[in-house]
Amino acid sequence: MNDFSFPTDDPQVRIVHSFQEMIEARFENGINALCWPRMLDGNFAEVANRLGETGEGVTPLDDDFLESLSLTAAGKRAVEMMLLDLRLLREHDREPVLNLITGYPRDEEPGPVSTDVFSFHADSAPVEADTWLCTYHGATSERVPNSQVQRRVDSPQTRAELLKLYGGEDDEGFTEFLSDHCYDLHYAPLADARPQAFGLGHLWRIAVAWPESSVPPCIHRAPDTAPGDPPRLLLIS
Fold it and tell me: Comparing C-alpha atoms, which of 59, 224, 37 is closest to residue 138?
């Protein structure tokens, strides 16, 4: 699902028109996702296909290595676009990483709640933070409005299974157990949920769960890809 339609009717998403506007914007009044829609120049498929021969799983890409690649002019423009995004984020005290992704590990024994990246989830932090995302090539991440999901630990059946796994009462210790295993950060889409792809080339800044946040975290997940699918080029910070 790589198509992108501007969520003009989604009160949780704000569209911005520059990097500076995205940096200065605040998560407030229920808005927990900022998007800078972009049509980027360059042949990102060429870069991804060239890099696809270099590793499996998730491979961080070094700036110097990217610049050293033998590419066409269009491929070099794609590299320049990605390096520019990295530089802009670093200049604003972010720590972005550009990854080549050919596959993610899955929960081998997920139990009542799967906690891998394919599950709808919220990022979390002990202090104020946010997550930045941009997919340049391949399947894109997707989000879903908070009103269209339920925390998996709030499902009576799932909670009962987790209590059995915990081996105790529904008490403060159980709450800590859920937090320690990140079970409380994962969500199940409701029957009428309409997930939205983040799209290619668009830069997103999304809210995470932290103690004093005034907005709910943005619920999102990685795309459920299969062996043989095109590799992903993903910036994350």
Answer: 224
* Residue 186: band (very low, low, confident or very high) from pLDDT cuts 50, 70, 90: very high
**Angle, vertex CA 122, rays to CA 191 and CA 84, nearest 5:** 120
Confidence category of residue 1, pLDDT binned at 50, 70, 90: very low
Strand, coil or helix: 149: strand
pLDDT tens-digit profile of 69-103?
999 999 999 999 999 999 999 999 999 999 999 87
Nearest Cα residue to 214 out of 89, 71, 56, 27: 27
- Burial class, 60, CB count within 10 angstroms (exposed 0-12 / middle 13-18 / buried 19+): exposed
The structure tokens listed for 119 are: 């599950």
Domain ranges of the chain: 13-149+193-236
Whether the per-residue pLDDT at 226 is higher than 90: the answer is no
CATH of domain 13-149+193-236: 2.60.120
- What amino acid occupies position 32? N
Per-residue pLDDT tens digits for 23-35: 999 999 999 999 9
Distance CA 29, CA 41 (A): 34
